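FORM 12-B: Structure-to-Sequence Request
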């Protein structure tokens, strides 16, 4: 058996699930202060407050306020115990035994123990509850056995090192067994509770969510920055979708912190002596456009390559993000250990090639508006953006791509920003030619498992390959980092050769705050803003 236990880390050096790496050590907040309230303006309102249903990277900082997982990540992509004290892995990789803390209580007074962990795992397999989780993150899960109140053994059908990533993810966070019976379970909210340092006690849809301190909290992970209850008494997150409104609220003192600082406002924030600013690349995948190969015109690789070659991505990014965006060349974010830099500058920004490919594919005539046609039909492709997932001015970015493909190659890209239900309906009915996606998964393998295999939840592009599926499965079955990288490099190259997607940029998060705010930071592996656990208001 391989045994893994908590490792002490200097307080304040790094913050994991409960926080993040310090945003600015020179900020004027002074030493940590107990008490006070803080207001934070966020770009995205969560679709749900249930961690099992988590799907928005922008909601992650809220999840970790009130919910916690068995493990958390360190700054090197490894794992540290959180609600678990330690874990063992059997020699055959089929059994993971977690020794749990015995001093943890849910917000509703329920005891956290092995039975609670099993209840959460059982809930995930309730039909219709979390099919995306059970078909990917838990696809190799066999069963869970309560050994004793402080010990649970998780058995797998086959070795899968990504099971640890699940137990460190929001989807693996622990909900009170009593809350699992709530009629509001899927939506979450005040009556769906966890063990975290804050208690969600008020939510006003479209406006804000409010958290109060959990006074009995005393089980932060070793790298959380401090131990015991949170510093703040309360924190309010206001939902301000418009970036100019968020920045205006910060500079006028209406809020203390904002996330999502647009490129056009960053110089203003950085120049203000009363403010602090920090940013961090997200892990997981880049923000990509995927081509739907199950229908015309992208069932033809020449049209997929033509669309990719028609876009000068650097110019589009410069126009939207003013030099603050990191160009992507692969399905994976360049911030991760498995990224393949050899793909850089191997495609794109080649209008001559794009037009030649479209001529070869039969789209050789143009209509009066300059769009390519074939047999009297315009070369039209549709992208449907779900409003709750539109961040970083991605609607404006889509307009930039729209203009580029029209000007360079005569492709009619139609862009629609719609509500989540309408977007889901369009995807389910296969009424799209392009779909967008980025993932903030801490392990790239978890993201690839969602996007590449046949039948995977995000495989809406339709490209399938037995070889790629074997590569992903082999990588998930080994702890050998070099072998995992070889497999994921092969996947990246195959997707590029197939022109499955157009990589655009590596998502990043930005935080700006009053100088009096201390403890701001990012999760060390995910690169997203940390929770409020380590925040304080300086005197």
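FORM 12-B RESPONSE
SEQUENCE OUT:
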């Amino acid at each position: 058996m391989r045994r893994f236990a908590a490792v002490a880390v200097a307080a304040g050096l790094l913050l994991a699930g409960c926080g993040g790496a310090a945003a600015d050590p020179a900020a004027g907040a002074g030493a940590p202060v107990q008490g006070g309230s803080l207001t934070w303006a966020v770009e995205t309102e969560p679709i749900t407050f249930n961690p099992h249903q988590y799907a928005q990277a922008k909601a992650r900082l809220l999840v970790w306020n009130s919910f916690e997982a068995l493990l958390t990540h360190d700054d090197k992509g490894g794992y540290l115990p959180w609600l678990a004290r330690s874990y063992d892995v059997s020699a055959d990789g089929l059994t993971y035994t977690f020794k749990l803390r015995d001093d943890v209580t849910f917000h509703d007074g329920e005891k956290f123990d092995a039975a609670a962990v099993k209840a959460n795992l059982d809930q995930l397999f309730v039909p219709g509850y979390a099919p995306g989780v059970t078909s990917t993150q838990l696809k190799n899960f066999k069963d869970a056995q309560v050994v004793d109140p402080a010990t649970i053994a998780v058995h797998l059908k086959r070795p899968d090192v990504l099971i640890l990533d699940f137990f460190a993810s929001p989807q693996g966070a622990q909900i009170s067994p009593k809350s699992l019976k709530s009629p509001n379970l899927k939506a979450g909210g005040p009556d769906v509770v966890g063990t975290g340092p804050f208690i969600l006690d008020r939510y006003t849809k479209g406006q804000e969510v409010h958290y109060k301190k959990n006074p009995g909290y005393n089980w932060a992970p070793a790298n959380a920055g401090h131990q015991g209850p949170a510093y703040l008494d309360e924190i309010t997150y206001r939902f301000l979708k418009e970036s100019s409104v968020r920045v205006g609220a910060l500079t006028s003192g209406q809020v203390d912190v904002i996330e999502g600082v647009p490129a056009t406002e960053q110089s203003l924030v950085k120049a203000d002596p009363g403010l602090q600013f920090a940013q961090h690349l997200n892990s997981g995948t880049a923000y990509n456009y995927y081509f739907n190969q199950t229908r015309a015109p992208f069932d033809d690789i020449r049209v997929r390559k033509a669309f990719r070659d028609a876009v000068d991505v650097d110019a589009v990014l410069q126009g939207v993000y003013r030099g603050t965006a990191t160009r992507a060349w692969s399905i994976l974010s360049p911030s991760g250990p498995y990224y393949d830099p050899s793909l850089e500058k191997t495609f794109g920004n080649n209008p001559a090639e794009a037009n030649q490919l479209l001529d070869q594919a039969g789209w050789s005539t143009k209509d009066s508006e300059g769009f390519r046609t074939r047999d009297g039909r315009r070369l039209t492709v549709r992208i449907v953006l779900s409003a709750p997932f539109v961040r970083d001015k991605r609607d404006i970015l889509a307009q930039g791509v729209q203009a580029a493909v029209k000007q360079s190659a005569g492709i009619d890209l139609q862009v629609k920003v719609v509500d989540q239900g309408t977007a889901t309906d369009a995807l389910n009915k296969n009424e799209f030619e392009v779909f967008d996606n980025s993932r903030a998964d801490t392990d790239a393998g978890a993201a690839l498992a969602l996007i590449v295999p046949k039948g995977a939840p995000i495989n809406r592009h339709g490209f399938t390959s037995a070889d790629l599926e074997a590569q992903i499965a082999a990588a998930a079955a080994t702890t050998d980092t070099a072998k995992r990288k070889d497999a994921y490099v092969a996947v990246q190259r195959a997707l590029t050769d197939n022109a499955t997607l157009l990589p655009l940029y590596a998502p990043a998060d930005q935080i700006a705050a009053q100088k009096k705010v201390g403890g701001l930071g990012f999760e060390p592996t995910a690169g997203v803003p940390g929770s409020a656990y380590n925040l304080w208001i300086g005197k």
